[in-house]
Amino acid sequence: MSLIIPSRLWEYLIAAWLIILAPGPSVLFTIARAISWGRAVAVATVLGNALGMFTISILVAVGLGPILQRFHPFYIGVQWLGAFYLVYLGMDAVRHSREHAESMTNVSGGKPSIKKTIQQGYLVGVLNPKSLVFFAAILPQFTDRAKGHLTSQLLLLGAIFCTICFISDGAWGIIAGTIRIWLSSESRRLERLRAGGGFVMIGLGILTFINSIVHS
For residue 115, what is the enclosing H or E element? Predict the structure, then answer.
């Protein structure tokens, strides 16, 4: 399978970093594990989650790529779906920031082994329906339909996203594990992180919709 570099790769890299840096449930879950069990468990959780998400991205690329290549209206429709999905995620994050922060920091049980932690992270990533919707709705709009080989492009974009996710969420875990006492002392800090991430998502959704019209 040929490796095709999408012409909008730089736009994708910027969008991916902004989406991943915006604190969402995976970041809060990582922070919670860092607070409870330290940096090693947090990073292992992130690794498992990234591997699970990459599994989903492979399934999406193989199943969706040929359809996007053949049907241009479907290709445009997926782009719009991605834009509205980002706005929805942002609004949900802002509206329920307190509940999200409280639920994602509810970590119980004894400290798991690194192997067990990676397995748990993998299951969270691969069984998360939002991962499936995300990869199906967001990634296609950054592919270059004129170059063909959309399956290859989707695989590349998925691998890039999961790599950035591992680096970014891993950094969150390391930082949280280092300042665990400060983070756990005030729940509103996590709530503000979640709300701030929601506003970033809304802005990205609006920009994504505009870009989909410009490039359609």
Answer: helix 114-126
Cβ atoms within 10 Å, residue 99: 11
Residues 195/94, Cβ–Cβ less than 8 Å:
yes
Residues 34-47, mean pLDDT to the nearest whole number: 84
Owner of token pair 């994602």: 104
Question: Mind giving me the DSSP string for 55-87?
Answer: HHHHHHHHHHHHHHHH-HHHHHHHHHHHHHHHH
pTM: 0.71
- The SS3 call for residue 126 is helix
- Half-sphere exposure (Cβ direction) of 8: Cα atoms closer than 13 Å: 19
Q: What is the DSSP letter of 139?
A: G
**In angstroms, rounded to a whole number, what is the distance separating the alpha carbons of residues 93 and 58?**
27
The b/e string for 10-20 (b: 16+ C-beta within 10 A; e otherwise) is: ebbeebbeebb
**DSSP of 15-71:** HHHHHHHS--HHHHHHHHHHHHH-HHHHHHHHHHHHHHHHHHHHHHHHHHHHHHHH-
Enumerate the domain spans of the chain.
Answer: 9-214
- 196-207 pLDDT tens trace: 767 776 776 787
- The Cα–Cα gap between 94 and 86 comes to 12
Q: How far apart are CA 173 and CA 67, in angstroms?
A: 38
pLDDT score of 208 more than 90: no
- Return all residues near 87 (Cβ < 8 A) that are at least 6 apart: 201, 202, 205, 206, 209
